[in-house]
């Protein structure tokens, strides 16, 4: 690894190999929000009726084989909330003899999860735990589960499956008895969703953001407590809501923050509209949302962290050409050469991995199915933009932002170069990007740094 990459690796809080890491404080917020998602009253939800009906219909399908139903989408879309409402539906539960809900998470411990499954199965039937239920041997624990579930119809939810190792470690605990049993998963990973449904049959449910009408209903419900939005605040609120892009977690968090604002002081609302990035950093009411969205970034391997941070050079709402982005990564040295694969193929793999993790939104495809253009959700962009600035990974100059750090490594100029002082120290500048009016990409220059 180059010295430069090694320095960034420590700056980004990426542990070196064989290091011991204590889970950061944002995991506390993650667990609290996940628990709350299961407890939300359905009357408080918006846009859940149709997805719930579609999932229930599939869970209760006529297929007798064991099937997996994977709900996939970016963090904050409401996957856990939706699946919870399906799982707790009274009519659906009557069709299954046994029910288990397990949260897998990023750093799961297999023996603990298996013991939890056993505990739920035997508690539900009011039976004493069998011999060996406290074992740390995963094979023995799986055998107890398989023996219990054989010949029975069961519904098991695996919530928040991040990686293939989570699915691979658990799948053999669930026997095929041709009784119409179902596994339901929630995941941010398209790879996990595709693999589990291919191996077990079933379907992928790609959860979509709320429509603007649904978003507005939810926003007003949280912000104005079921009352209409005052006319004088409507335009400001609609502009703020657009930044949420239908993400329920963001709408609820920002609506809850705005509910504390004085409805008379329009200037306070205008300040939020202008400086949402600052609010993300400094407002405690948004810390949970930021933690959830940051989890996806923190889970990336170090080389993908650089590639994802690199997306912060583009202006807001910019449609990014896939091939151009990969070439930029290669030029920056972010794409590591691997045996038997060209650097372009490795770059393509990096790009697809970010798409699979629901970090990049596909906007346009070619006729043959290849991705042509993509973008980043506004709130994810705000998070990586802050991380980029904090780590001096890059800097942006625009009509709204005229300040530059003392030493700039990558500089992205949006619509203007007028505010760049000629005496500024650019001795460390490696890359320069210029975006013209309307966000059009004019050129980029890569400089040779000594």
From TrEMBL:
InterPro entries: Apaf_helical, Disease_R_plants, NB-ARC, P-loop_NTPase, WH-like_DNA-bd_sf, WHD_DRP. Signal peptide: none annotated. The chain crosses the membrane at residues 432-449. Residues 313-384 form the Disease resistance protein winged helix domain. One of its GO terms (biological process) is defense response to other organism. Residues 49-225 form the NB-ARC domain. The keyword Transmembrane helix applies. Keywords: Membrane, Plant defense, Repeat, Transmembrane, Transmembrane helix. The keyword Membrane applies. One of its GO terms (molecular function) is ADP binding. It comes from the Eukaryota. This is Disease resistance protein RPM1-like. The gene is LOC107430962.
């Amino acid at each position: 690894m180059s010295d430069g990459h090694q320095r960034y690796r420590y700056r980004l809080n990426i542990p070196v190999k064989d290091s011991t890491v204590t889970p950061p404080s944002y995991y506390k917020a993650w667990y609290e929000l996940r628990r709350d998602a299961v407890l939300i009253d359905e009357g408080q939800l918006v846009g859940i009726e149709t997805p719930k009906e579609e999932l229930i219909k599939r869970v209760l399908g006529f297929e007798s084989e064991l099937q997996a139903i994977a709900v996939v989408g970016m963090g904050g879309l409401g996957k856990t909330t939706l699946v919870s409402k399906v799982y707790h539906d009274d009519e659906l539960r009557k069709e299954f003899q046994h029910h288990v809900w397990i949260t897998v998470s990023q750093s799961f411990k297999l023996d603990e999860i298996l013991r939890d499954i056993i505990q739920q199965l035997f508690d539900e039937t009011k039976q004493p735990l069998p011999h060996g239920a406290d074992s740390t041997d995963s094979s023995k624990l799986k055998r107890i589960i398989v023996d219990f579930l054989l010949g029975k119809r069961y519904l098991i939810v695996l919530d928040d499956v991040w990686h293939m190792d989570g699915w691979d470690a658990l799948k053999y605990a669930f026997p095929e008895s041709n009784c119409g049993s179902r596994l339901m998963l929630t995941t941010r990973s398209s790879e996990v969703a595709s693999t589990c449904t291919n191996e077990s049959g079933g379907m992928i449910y790609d959860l979509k953001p709320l429509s603007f009408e649904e978003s507005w209903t939810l926003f007003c419900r949280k912000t104005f407590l079921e009352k209409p939005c005052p006319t004088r605040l409507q335009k400001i609120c609609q502009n703020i809501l657009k930044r949420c892009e239908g993400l329920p977690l963001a709408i609820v968090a920002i609506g809850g923050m705005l509910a504390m604002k004085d409805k008379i002081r329009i200037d306070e609302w205008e300040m939020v509209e202008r400086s949402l990035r600052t609010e993300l950093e400094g407002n405690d009411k948004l810390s949970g949302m930021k933690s959830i969205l940051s989890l996806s970034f923190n889970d990336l391997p170090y080389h993908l962290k650089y590639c994802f941070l690199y997306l912060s050079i583009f202006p807001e709402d910019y449609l990014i050409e896939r091939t151009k982005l990969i070439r930029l990564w290669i030029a920056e040295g972010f794409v590591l050469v691997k045996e038997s694969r060209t650097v372009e193929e490795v770059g393509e793999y990096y790009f697809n991995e970010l798409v699979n993790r629901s970090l990049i939104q596909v906007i346009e495809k070619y006729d043959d199915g290849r991705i042509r253009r993509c973008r980043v959700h506004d709130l994810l962009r705000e998070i990586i933009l802050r991380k980029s600035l904090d780590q001096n990974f890059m800097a942006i100059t625009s009509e709204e932002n005229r300040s530059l750090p003392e030493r700039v490594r990558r500089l992205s100029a949006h619509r203007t170069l007028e505010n760049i002082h000629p005496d500024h120290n650019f001795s460390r500048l490696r890359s320069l990007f210029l975006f013209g009016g309307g966000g059009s990409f004019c050129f980029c220059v890569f400089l040779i740094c000594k």
